[in-house]
Structures are given as C-alpha cells and as structure tokens.
C-alpha cells in the first residue's frame, strides 16, 4: 500500500467507518446463520426460508436510498448515529419481547435493514476524506466491513445452540454498543461535505445512464456476495445434511474469503484500473457459479468451488467502488445509496430465488445458473461501456486515477 495513503485522509474516521459497517453487517445477515434453527422451530418450508433471509437484504437495499438522502442533508456522522440507534432498538425488542411467528421474523428483518443501510453512510464518511488516487484503497478498507457477515456465520449458530436463538439478538447488542462508542469518539465529517441536494437533483442522477450501469454491476458483485452469505448456512444444511453449527463454519469460510479481498480488490483497481479488474472478476464469478449449479458430490468440494466465487465477487465489490467516486464524486452520497440499493436488490433476488428454486424443483441449480448468467451479462455490458468511460471521464488527467 502506498505510504502516502495514510497521510492523505483521516485514519480515525476510516477505522470508525469500518467498525460501524462491520458490526452492522453482522446483524444485517444474522437471520441467515440462525435460519436453520428458526425454520425448525417454526416449521418453515424452503420458500419461506428464502424469504426470511432475503427480507433484511431487500429492506436494507431500499433504506440505502433513505440513508443516502440523510447523509447529504444531515452529514454522514449524524445519519449513521440514527441508523445505529434504530438497529439497537430492534434487537432489544426481539430479545426482550421474543419472536414467536413468521410475521414477526419478517418485521425484525425489515428493521435490520437499517443495519444493511449502513453502507450508504460508512462509504461516504470515509470517501470524502480521500483524493481520487486513493479512493479504491479507502473504500476497500471501509467496505471490508462486510466481513461482519463472517462473525454472524461463525458465532450465531453456536450461540443459538448454547443459549437459544432468541438470546443471540441480545448478545449482539454488546459488540454493537462498542462500535457505537468508537463511532461517537472517532468519526468526523470531512470539511469537503457537499451541500444538500433537492429531490429533483437526486432524480437527475438517474437520468445519467452511467448511474444505471453502476447499479447493475454492483447488483451482481455485491448481490452475489450478500445473497450467498445469507443463504449458505441453509444451503449446506439442506444440501449436505450438515448441522447448523458446521454449516455456519462452512459459510464463514466462504464469507471470510469474499470480505477479506474487498480491500485487495480496491487496491488492485487503483493499480490496474477498475474496468480491467471487473472484466476478470465477472468472468471468474460466472464460471464458479456455474460449477456450483452442477451440484458438488461432497460439502468439501462445494466449499472448494464457492470460495473462489466469493473471492471474485468480493474483489469485484472493491473494483466497482474504485470507479464510482471517479464518475460521481460530488454525488457520492446519493450514488452510494443508489448503487448500494441495487446491490441489496441483487442479494434479495439471489437469496429468495435459491429458496424458490429448491421449493419448486427440489434443487438449487436453477437459482445458481440464472445468477451466473447475470454475471455474464454484466461482463458484456462492461465491454460495451469501457471505451467510452476511458476516453471521457476516465481520460488521463481528468480523474487522477486509473480507470
């Protein structure tokens, strides 16, 4: 990593953004690792399992727009504080009042969407402190907070066995309280925060076709990552008969791979350009997702195929957000919300489609194949726009960074 990076921005804010994002993501996907126990107690079918784990993803996707607007109007730090307090309140309600029905699970999932919406706060909070040539690295580090999904997969099933799955919601309040304290002490808004925009200006961004391309590209990379992170515990349990705890360990390995390499994806994109990075990542993701769809005979072989798929998707996340600030630097708040929303929608689609695929066909194959095809469509789309991007806003001397 370039030594000048640590002098270019505000490391305490970067740390606070990472920790806030990390533990928010932990609780955002919590229903996935707990899904086997919850489904067993409530007698849920495959489609209901898919909807259960997909609901927080969809809620988080839609709330990213709301949080993106709050970021521009209240500045990132205050917007993040509001989101964290709502999540703490939701977990407190679930823990003290108990979750007794599928409908209550869905309500909790919608409230946990505010944790997923932390994306729209943490990234602008960090991004605004750093110049263009360090955007990939800064947003890769802040975005590595999606590693919180590892914590959920690693610890939630075991804690549910020891204390009951409802108690896990209360236990989650402990690390969330630590993250909130760090956030209040160290996070600081950049002096370069742009003025708030009117709703007409937000809608104006959607008239730019590049905004739609970024939304689609991220719906595949992040959608694939979070959709799998939320679904793999149930997948390994259903497909291979692994216990909830063992399935959680397998899921944690996959998610760790995808989250660990997000900063590497951002650094690589800073070095060779985001477009070139994404061309490689979409190709690899499509190939490994197609391999998963075939159905590996053992869980170890399935793990060996899913891990590289998650690596490709994780690095793709970092590469997309190396490009977004170059194209939409002054609109980074609303664009983070829009692009993040699209990523959540992609995750909702993948998680729910895997459940419905299993329910209707008795296999997950169709769900995996369709998403692999979406990765191929993204690859074709990137080839279509790369020349225009490199010769306009990505021209040397315009953005000050590799495109």
Task: Estimate the strand proportion.
Answer: under 5%
Radius of gyration, rounded? 20 Å
Strand element count: 0
Secondary-structure element order, N to C: HHHHHHHHHHHHHHHHHHH
Mean pLDDT: 89
* Quaternary assembly: single chain
Walkthrough of the structure:
The chain is mostly helical and 403 residues long. It has 19 helices and no strands. It is globular, with a radius of gyration of 20 Å. The protein has a single domain, classed as Growth Hormone, Chain: A, CATH 1.20.1250. The two termini are 18 Å apart. The chain has helices spanning 5-8, 11-28, 35-42, 46-74, 76-97, 102-116, 119-127, 135-143, 148-163, 165-171, 173-186, 199-205, 209-240, 244-260, 262-272, 274-294, 299-327, 332-361, 365-391. The longest helix has 32 residues, at 209-240.
């Amino acid at each position: 990593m370039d030594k000048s990076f640590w002098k270019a921005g505000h490391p305490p804010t970067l740390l606070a953004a990472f920790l806030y994002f990390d533990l928010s993501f932990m609780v955002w996907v919590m229903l996935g690792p707990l899904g086997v126990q919850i489904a067993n107690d409530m007698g849920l079918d495959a489609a209901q399992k898919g909807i259960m784990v997909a609901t927080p993803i969809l809620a988080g996707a839609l709330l990213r727009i709301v949080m993106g607007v709050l970021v521009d109007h209240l500045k990132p730090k205050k917007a993040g504080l509001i989101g964290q307090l709502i999540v703490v309140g939701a977990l407190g309600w679930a823990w003290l009042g108990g979750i007794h029905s599928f409908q209550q699970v869905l309500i909790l999932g919608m409230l946990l969407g505010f944790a997923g919406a932390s994306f729209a706060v943490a990234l602008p909070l960090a991004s605004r402190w750093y110049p263009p040539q360090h955007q990939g690295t800064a947003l890769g580090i802040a975005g590595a907070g999606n590693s919180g999904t590892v914590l959920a997969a690693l610890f939630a099933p075991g804690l549910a066995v020891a204390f009951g799955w409802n108690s896990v919601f209360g236990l989650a309040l402990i690390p969330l309280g630590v993250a909130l304290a760090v956030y209040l002490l160290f996070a600081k808004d950049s002096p370069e925060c742009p003025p708030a925009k009117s709703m007409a200006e937000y809608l104006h961004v959607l008239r730019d076709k590049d905004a739609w391309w970024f939304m689609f590209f991220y719906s595949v990379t992040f959608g694939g990552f979070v959709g799998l992170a939320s679904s793999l515990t149930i997948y390994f349990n259903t497909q291979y008969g692994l216990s909830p705890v063992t399935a959680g360990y397998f899921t944690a390995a996959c998610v760790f791979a995808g989250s660990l390499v997000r900063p590497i994806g951002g650094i690589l994109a800073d070095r060779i350009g985001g477009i070139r990075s994404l061309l490689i990542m979409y190709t690899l993701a499509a190939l490994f997702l197609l391999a998963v769809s075939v159905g590996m005979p053992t869980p170890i072989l399935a793990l060996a195929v899913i891990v590289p798929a998650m690596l490709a998707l994780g690095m793709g996340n970092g590469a997309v957000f190396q490009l977004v600030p170059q194209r939409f630097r002054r609109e980074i708040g609303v664009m983070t919300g829009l692009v993040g929303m699209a990523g959540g929608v992609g995750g909702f689609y993948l998680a729910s489609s895997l459940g419905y695929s299993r329910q209707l066909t008795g296999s997950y194959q169709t769900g995996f194949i369709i998403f692999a095809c979406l990765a191929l469509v993204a690859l074709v789309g990137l080839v279509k726009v790369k020349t225009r991007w490199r010769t306009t806003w990505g021209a040397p001397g315009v953005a000050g960074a590799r495109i």
